[in-house]
Amino acid sequence: MEIKNIIRPKSLDEAYRSMLDQGAYPIAGGTWIRLGSRVIETALDLSTLDLRYIRTEKGKIELGAMTTLRDVELSAVLEKSYGSLFKTVVGPIVGVPMRNLITVGGTVGGRYGFSDLNTLLLALNARVVLYKTGEMDFASYLEHKSSSPLLIEKILIDERGVRGAFTSIRKTKTDLAILNAAAAFTGTEWRLVLGARPGMAKLAKNAGALLGSTAQPSDGDIQRAADTAAQELDFGADIRGDEAYRSAVAPVLIRRAILEVRS
Amino acid sequence: MANQFSEVTKSRPKIDGKGLVTGRPAYTDDLAPPDALVVRILRSPHAHAKILSIDPSEALKLPGVECVLTYQDVERIPYTRAGQGNPEPSPHDKFILDRYVRYVGDEVAVVAAVDEETARQALALVKVEYQVLPAVLDFETAADNPTVIHPEPEIHDMFPIGFEPKRNIAAAYDMEIGNVEGVLQECDFVVEETYYTQAQAHVALEPHTAFTYLDLQGRLNVVTSTQNPFHTRRLMGLALHLPLKNIRVQKPRIGGGFGGKQVVHVEPYAALVTLKTGKPAKVVMTRKEVFESTFTRHQMRLTVRIGARRDGKIRAIDMQVLSNTGAYGEHALTVFMVGGSKTLPLYNKIEAAKFGGKIVYTNKIPAGAFRGYGAIQGNFALESAIDELAHKMGMDPVELRTINMIKEGETSEVFKIMGEGGEGVEMIVESCKLDYCVRRGAELLGYNPRRLAYEVAPGIVRAQGMAIAMQGSGIPLIDMGSANLELQDDGFFKLHIGATDLGTGSDTILAQIAAEELGVGLEDMVVYASDTDHTPYDVGAYASSTTYVSGNAVLKAAQEMKKALRHAVADKYGLDPERVVFKDREFLTDEGKKLVSLRDFSYDTLYHNGAKMKTIATSGSYSGEKSPPPYLAAFVEIDVDTETGKIDVRNYVAVVDCGTPINTNLAKIQVEGGLLQGIGMALYEDVRYSENGHMLTNSLMSYTIPSREDVGKLTVEFAESYEPSGPFGAKSVGEIGIDTPLAAIANALYNATGARVRELPLTPPRVLDAIRRVKDR
Amino acid sequence: MNITVTINGQKRTLEIEYGDMLTEVLRKAGYVEVKKGCDTGNCGVCTVLLDGTPIPSCSFLALRADGREITTIRGVEKEAAQFADFLTAEGADQCGFCSPGFAITVLAMKRELGNPDEATMKHYLAGNLCRCSGYEGQLRAVKKYLEVSHGESI
User: Fold this and answer.
1) Does A174 contact B at CB distance below 8 Å?
2) Cβ C64–A91 below 8 Å, yes or no?
3) A54-57 and A190-195: which strand pairing?
4) For residue B722, which of A133, A254, B713, B729 is within the disulfide window of CB 3.0 to 4.6 Å?
């Protein structure tokens, strides 16, 4: 892997400009760039920006783009609002040393199909704050196509009022998921998400609607919602599993996630 | 038994352990000369192709590129890379560089440059034109396929092995004892099923590495991560057309082998560069290259027929096997045969047995040696079939095994008939504690045949299963090991052995054997191993031979040393040697009068004894007349999530009869490590390909080995056992640990769900599918 | 470019390319205890401490190490030797290729968590793969080591 030039910006503005004017390639954690023997003309080192924080502001928890997954795993702020949910989600990712490098921004920005964190963030109705481009909800971000550069500044989630759960099926404990699922109740609506389909996380809107606005849906409604989620979304095959398996196991994961939120 | 020894059975720390853990330079890449040329290998992107033209000129123009070598630069000599004794039971079907490529990853050209980056760039500049040929990717349609993978006229076997390359058959074998058809017809219960085992990757954490240089005398020196330095020297001599006296092979510390380094691997490519340029050269494989371009376990299809009488006696077993050896035939016949020779004798009282089949070529990565070496595949089929038979008979699988399995003092006709590529050796099993292992294993797990499965949470079923296994201890009359012992001034001993420590600790345990016999301590031994210039011959680390074969050689050398010492001391004091006693580092008369200490005598013999000064050195060699099997009984408890198909191993109990464990901790770790690899093959590991023969599982992201969170608990115990023909009663323990998890877990899955899965690995999709089909019935 | 890094307490100036990852840079500078086992950051044999935090050096851009402190297992000799005694006492050192990375992660865990329970231990160390030992012997060693040493600091 060759990098011909490197920019180490002192401000978000400088970073954004380099992407715009020079097509600079942003490097967050940098754990993946060496996979594949590419040549990068100009690389943008985001580690020099002050984007590593987890803080509360106006009822939101702000996760800076360069926050590591280990920061997320150990965060007292996240524990206070979400219990062990974030620990459960990032825990299986490779190992502690790797989680000291992988960033929230890199994970969100990569829009990886296999991402466990993105599935949770979509369920929690997180918002992505992009420098210059603006703020948008997570689902919109995942679909967003743009000719201008996207520079993630931070991710916002609600500090209070949202209860979530996450579950997944994987071969070994540190493997990528064959399928993952998250459920969240915002107080007024249920958000049900399936990810690693193997495609990106997607919201099962119809399924969520079936549960209405009650925090305690019935077992029957839960099963119906789970089945609907599996039918509503599409699945594919990759090295970890085929379409038939993913659609068979999807309702099981969704059901379990909902039950965990409900209890 | 254990208390009578002062060194043997003691859990001495490995002599190299502290240095390795604290990071001292020790492995091949740590030791390579900093100015060694970096050698990279251009590899085939096609599963099967002919090289029409190959043009290195652009690559040669790049500054820093020293040479680019193709098949045109190498003498065309067929050889085998399989690390086996001569004559090798593997066909000589490989050329260092050839005009044809036979799998994605096969060698095309060799580039040497001053650094990594230049070598990498140069690879991309070598222009190759291929004529793509049809690829044979399905091993079940490989035999007699219109596409012939090895049409070359020069390739050959070393002795008849059923080598029919024009039919894509690398080897074939058949044997029958008695009349299987006839006996099966008389059986009250017959099970006939077909099982599939997948290719598995070794994933030794150190990638294959070698460096070469010419020494002061112009000899080719090879330092390599290998399991078999002497075979490597011999086979490189053959392939490079060099006299063996002009080659030296050394093994430093290596980062694991498991059979994946029981081959000549990257050494010839470094050697070619050194011979061409006169400069040191090194090859360090990337992990991707290790996955794609070394070896895997043989994929197999095994059809088992097994018949029993109503009274519980198993009467006949028939095993027919199709094995996939990939693009080249390394270890083809021998792995295949071990599938029968190290499984069938478990049920030695049968009247009739049949074992046979073919090993076929395909355009996939070559298969080769991998711990278990056929026994693990055979064990999956046989031990699953035994459970299936037990269920058919309405009998407890443990009871069925207990009635039929081999006991101490018994034999099996299979021992005589099936050896390493040919006939074997008759053997009475003088140590076999299988009955104890089964009883104790059941006890340790809390095995309850009346309650093998129960729900522990909605949809989660906890269940138990079991399996037994055997392996061997070296290959009788074929594996040979030697040891040299020499007394040094100050009363310590040099122990030189050809045996190859892969990290297993053989340097340590062989020194423990010597120390025990000499009545000294491990701290009085200085060990040097695995250097063809300085250590005596040893086949290397495979076939679970080191403790038994090399250990017996060390024992002999030590016995000779005691004799030589007594004679030398007797000579000095003018006594009859029979009257000199050597005990606790002292020489005494048989009346107890002290003559001299070992330490003092060591100075005497080297400095003080005038005309009688001499170096006191002895040697010992050993080749076994038998291969006494270690045995293992396994009992596993799993949780099955019946809604997702996920299996979790909660507790794996293994009770092992390895004879005397020379070093109890190291023996235990061999079993524990083997269990994890077996569990990996049972549940997670699978070498997979795209439809045009590209390996999809070529990284640790796509090929997952078990992490430390994946298994709840391993419980390993040893049976009290003593093998009279082994050094201090030892047999072997290197492979036995890996054999049982496939069947034990599959049997537990059946007990949990009624789903019998005969294909591996037992991944969630495969298991869920099987569970659903049971529910649908 | 040049980077100035403090490695095992010693200030070093190293010449690197922008695209270099830390493992190769460290090995070239003589720190061969930092191993290379895979291409994808999964195995953990390359683990070092960066300002006291364990990271996979194979996945870390060397240029980011400028001005920072790296510790390899040879930089914590006393503690490494002590842990080595526990590991070798179990026979769990085996081929040793995973050991330096594993040991440095154990020391980092000790610093962060003291003497945690078994499940936490296994989880913290999950990113350090071992193919030889079956993990049980390593667990026995770590437990015994932490019992004895968790009060002490690096």
Assistant:
1) yes
2) no
3) unpaired
4) B729
> Which regions of chain C carry the CATH code 1.10.150.120?
77-149
> Are residues B90 and B66 part of one domain?
yes
- Closest partner CB to C43 (pick from B17, B677, B700): B700
pLDDT (mean) for B385-412 = 98
- Whether residue C139 and residue B11 make contact (CB cut-off 8 A), yes or no, is no
Q: Residue B74 is part of which domain span?
A: 35-133+211-256+261-286
Distance from CA of A32 to the nearest CA of B (A): 12
d(CA C7, CA B429) in angstroms, rounded, equals: 58
Q: Does domain C2-74 correspond to CATH entry 3.40.50.720?
A: no
Q: Considering its fold, how many domains does chain B have in total?
A: 3
Closest CB to C21 among A6, A34, A174: A34
Kindly report the nearest CA distance between residue C7 and chain B, in angstroms: 15
Which residue range forms the structural domain that includes residue A30?
A: 2-48
Q: A71-122: per-residue pLDDT in tens?
A: 999 999 999 999 999 999 999 999 999 999 999 999 999 999 999 999 999 9
Contact A249 B644 (CB under 8 A): yes
pLDDT digits (tens, 9 = 90+) for B599-627: 999 999 999 999 999 999 999 999 999 99
Domain membership flag for residue A119:
no
Q: Do B17 and C88 touch (CB under 8 A)?
A: yes
Domain end position, chosen among A27, A48, A69: A48
Q: Would you say residue B744 lies in a domain?
A: yes
| Number of independent structural domains in chain A | 3
User: Cβ A4–C41 below 8 Å, yes or no?
Assistant: no
Residues B11 and B40 in one domain: no
pLDDT above 70: residue C116: yes
Q: Is the peptide bond before B724 cis (omega within 30 degrees of 0)?
A: no
- Residue B211 burial (C-beta neighbours within 10 Å; 0-12, 13-18, 19+): buried
Can you give the pLDDT at residue B490? Answer: 97
Best of B15, B115, B205 to mutate (most C CBs within 10 Å, chain C): B205
**Is the pLDDT reported for residue B1 higher than 50?**
no
pTM: 0.98
CATH topology (fold) of C77-149: DNA polymerase; domain 1 (1.10.150)
Across B485-514, b (16+ Cβ under 10 Å) vs e yields: bbbeeebbbebbbbbbbbbbbbbbbbbbbb
Q: Is A36 on the interface with C (CB under 8 A)?
A: no
Q: Both B651 and B752 in a single domain?
A: yes
Residue showing tokens 């495979």: B542
Q: Cβ contact (<8 Å) for C19 and A94?
A: no
Q: Is the dihedral of CA A104, A108, A113, A119 positive or negative?
A: positive
Question: Do B65 and B113 meet the contact criterion of CB atoms below 8 Å apart?
Answer: yes
Establish if A248 belongs to a structural domain.
Answer: yes
Mind listing the pLDDT tens digit for each residue in A220-231?
999 999 999 999
ipTM of this complex prediction, to 2 decimal places? 0.97
Q: How many CA atoms lie within 13 A of B238 on its CB side?
A: 19
